[in-house]
Amino acid sequence: MSTHIAAASGEIAETVLLPGDPLRAEWIAKTYLDDVTCYSQVRNMLGFTGTYRGERISVQGTGMGQPSISIYVHELLAEYGAKTLVRVGSCGGLLADVAIRDLVVGISAATDSSMNALRFEGFHYAPTADFSLVRAYVEKAEAAGARYHVGQIFSTDVFYHDRPELRDRLTQYGVLAVEMEAAALYTLAAKFDARAMAVCTVSDNLVTGEETSADERERTFAEMVELALDAVSA
Ligand SMILES: Nc1nc(Cl)c2ncn([C@@H]3O[C@H](CO)[C@@H](O)[C@H]3O)c2n1
């Protein structure tokens, strides 16, 4: 058992999907996995292990923001031997053609968080996804005819920004979308020599003002998760 995850050694698979919402972790586990067990309910940040097409997969809620996901990812990597981590989340589109319901694969993740500024004091580290995971996901998305984008995303610490000009600058430099976790995930995966990727469904577009309805979010979330499961078990 680690400080925030009540799993015994061996209860967590080497491959872990990481939704922010623990109830989505439960939904993923119960919808797609067989022989599901719940290995942790600490702080209601639920974690499950099951099998997908015979392969062990775990699903762990991470909460919102880089400090929260960092706690779970650090413990999964340092104490449970996780090797492949895929964040499945939502994001806000920053370019007009990153439309609601599209999928965004973050090759890299810029950030306004002080976490990496302190960690890499003096230079700007570039948190980067694992290419083999990106390639596998894109192959599945292509085969499924899904609308997807691959590029840089932005992991902010501030959901309610009071600096709209920052968003405009990100758009000006081609950043696809904003979310709140990927930069920390990529940095920790690199630290522990693991593979990581973040894929998000576009829940709203900050340029056009379009927003998805609740059931649209559920549908595109399901498509994103199915492609992620196929990509990691390919
Ligand atoms: N800053 C921010 N902005 C927009 Cl437009 C978002 N759309 C989805 N998220 C994700 O959803 C949660 C915030 O609602 C966070 O976990 C974040 O990763 C967003 N986070």
From TrEMBL:
Q: What class of enzyme is it?
A: transferase
- Tell me which Gene Ontology terms the entry assigns under biological process: purine nucleoside catabolic process
> What would be the name of the gene that encodes this protein?
deoD
Q: What is this protein called?
A: Uridine phosphorylase
Q: Does the keyword Translocase apply?
A: no
Q: What is its EC number?
A: 2.4.2.3
Q: Which residues form the Nucleoside phosphorylase domain?
A: 16-229
Family the UniProt entry places it in: Belongs to the PNP/UDP phosphorylase family.
What molecular function does GO assign, one term?
Answer: purine-nucleoside phosphorylase activity
* Gene Ontology cellular-component annotations: cytosol
Q: Which UniProt keywords apply?
A: Glycosyltransferase, Transferase
